Amino acid sequence: MYWQREYETMSREQIRKVQLERLQALVKRLYNEVPFYQQRFKEKGLLPGDIKTLEDIKHLPFTTKQDLRDTYPFGMFAVPMEDVVRLHGSSGTTGKPVVVGYTKNDLRIWGNLIARSMVMAGVTKNDVVQNAYGYGLFTGGMGIHYGAETLGAAVVPMSGGNTAKQLMLMQDFGTTVLTCTPTYALYMAEEAHAGGVDWEKIKLKIGIFGAEPWSNEMRRQLEESWNITAVDIYGLSEVLGPGVACECRYKKGLHINEDHFIAEVIDPETGEPLPYGQRGELVFTSLTKEAFPVLRYRTRDISVLYADKCECGRTLIRMERVTGRTDDMLIIRGVNVFPSQVESVLLEFGETEPHYLLVVDKKGTMDDLEIWVEVSDRMFSDKVRGLEDLEKRLRARVLSVLGISAKIRLVEPKSIPRSEGKAKRIIDKRPK
Ligand code: DLL
Description:
Layout: H1 5-8, H2 12-33, H3 35-43, H4 65-70, E1 84-89, E2 99-103, H5 104-121, E3 128-131, H6 139-151, E4 154-157, H7 163-172, E5 177-180, H8 182-193, E6 206-210, H9 216-226, E7 229-236, E8 241-247, E9 254-256, E10 261-266, E11 280-286, E12 297-303, E13 305-306, E14 318-319, E15 324-325, E16 330-332, E17 335-337, H10 339-347, E18 352-363, E19 366-375, H11 377-380, H12 384-402, E20 407-411, E21 426-428
Parallel strand pairs: 3-4, 3-5, 5-6, 6-7, 18-21, 19-20
Antiparallel strand pairs: 1-2, 7-8, 8-9, 9-14, 10-11, 11-12, 12-15, 13-14, 16-17, 18-19
Helix pairs in contact: 2-3, 5-6, 8-9, 10-12
The site of 5'-O-[hydroxy(phenylacetyl)phosphoryl]adenosine (DLL) has 23 residues, from α6, β7, β8 and β12.
């Protein structure tokens, strides 16, 4: 099933042609409408006419989060404010957000891209979509909302939180699709299993989870505890919001909506583009956005691109699920560690729960990593010997998989704060 078959199944030649035409038009528009970009082009001695092939993209300047901060709030907009009909902001917790804007046409395209993602995941207009992404400046809530409406499904605009009510309506409305962060889906599952839910009334079939990294082990847990199929949806406010890429039901990476975005992977140190199959930092160029187009936006997200055929029939290239960000990566005594790697290790053990925290500190000159992880109820009431043994096994596994020694602190069930949106996994106490 496709939403926009003609775009989702284009041949490589067709897609490259569409991308080049759109890139050339974009560069012209940025040069003429956004002083920031005109200056960057001039610094590089570039004129819009210099972009003759898709490969020429490598000559174009990158855009960084700092650039968006420097032009706060509307300095990067390429249309007059009278054409802007929606503003959103990035999810930074402190300081000023990065502001992004949309025209009516941008919203129409966004709605279609979310509808496309939902159809990829198996959603139809007969579904009831309970949307528990946060509504507000965050793009998750309203982005998914209008996409589900575009598709013709019935949307329940719950936003995040209010878990008891989420579970009540899920039963009463016969919700079939749940959209939220994976950590919130997990929290809801925990509450549902703790009692008060009549499982006969739970009709969930599909979960569309994203906005934060999650592992395949976490997927397995979510699929089992809800008895659903769970797919990964990716995006970021600076580039669109959710809907830049999404998994199809084969779950072998996320299809990138290449008719609207050019994806590159670069070496984060040198900025050099890397070939398909090599891991690096994702960079996106938005091809069709009117209000707030971005050129080669450095996401800091780490992934790999794959161009091989997908069984679903879509020809859109895929990105591997994002397992971390360059700025999420902990360097512990010289070893690079992502929270998602720790998550994979922890979830191999049936005795632990997928709720964990990485606490980093400096002891003398040495980095010190402590992994706090909740143990299951059953385990916690077990003998001390059992806990000591589990701790030992976890420590050995972390050492062999990640190559670092870490202290393991087994904590009581439900003692690590739950998240209704994006989880916070790292507490870094090292002096900056
Ligand atoms: O999180 C947009 C979104 C909403 C995506 C709902 C999916 C679902 P921001 O708040 O700007 O936008 O955060 C973007 O979140 O650069 C990634 O680091 C991370 N992220 C988003 N989706 C995924 C995912 C939204 N599926 C930042 N897997 C991005 C891993 C993700 N990380």
